[in-house]
Design goal:
This protein is α/β, with parallel strands linked by helices and 148 residues long. The protein has two domains: 75 residues, no CATH class; 51 residues, no CATH class. It contains six helices and seven strands, in the order E-H-E-H-E-H-E-H-E-H-E-E-H. The strands form three sheets. A three-stranded antiparallel sheet has the order 5-6-7. Helix 3 links the parallel strand 3 and strand 4. The longest helix has 14 residues. The structure holds zinc ion. Zinc ion binds next to loops.
């Protein structure tokens, strides 16, 4: 569970297959208690105080750039640092495999021809596919983790 301003971090954690929700708006006890079984990730010392008082699991991150924060989280939770690509990185839903014909009108023609392993988000309707953009993501991930 992350604060809304950590959205970049949330997207990357979802690429690694992690179930990550972003808390939108002001953070209050009622909202936090609803998700008591999650670990809250925050950069706020003030919130840390609240989480302690409410008995909520949390991880306090330094106010650093998202790459350094991602490193800390991967280490802290011993997350396998590999792209899983099984979750929608926009909305966190698990993706379903889909036939390219079913999403033909939602993807560029070149993707229709060259894309592979299409998946569809059942929640927001975003279409994903395997392609060269994954190499770029893998490279970025490698660079980030090399600095841990
Ligand atoms: Zn989605």
């Amino acid at each position: 569970m992350l604060e809304a301003d950590l959205h970049r971090l949330a997207q990357w954690l979802r690429l690694l297959g992690q179930d990550v929700l972003l808390l939108k708006g002001p953070i209050n006890k009622a909202e936090v208690i609803k998700h008591y079984d999650r670990v809250f990730i925050t950069t706020s010392k003030k919130l840390e105080g609240h989480f302690k008082a409410w008995g909520i699991s949390y991880l306090l991150l330094p106010k650093d750039e998202w790459k350094a924060q991602l490193c800390l989280i991967v280490k802290h939770f011993r997350i396998e640092p590999a792209l899983k690509l099984n979750r929608c990185y926009h909305c966190n839903s698990e993706l379903n495999p889909v036939d390219r014909e079913e999403v033909k009108d939602r993807i560029p023609p070149a993707v229709y021809i060259f894309g592979q392993d299409f998946t569809l988000c059942p929640n927001c309707g975003k279409v994903y596919w395997k392609g060269s953009h994954h190499d770029a993501l893998r490279q970025t991930l490698k660079e980030i983790l090399a600095c841990c």
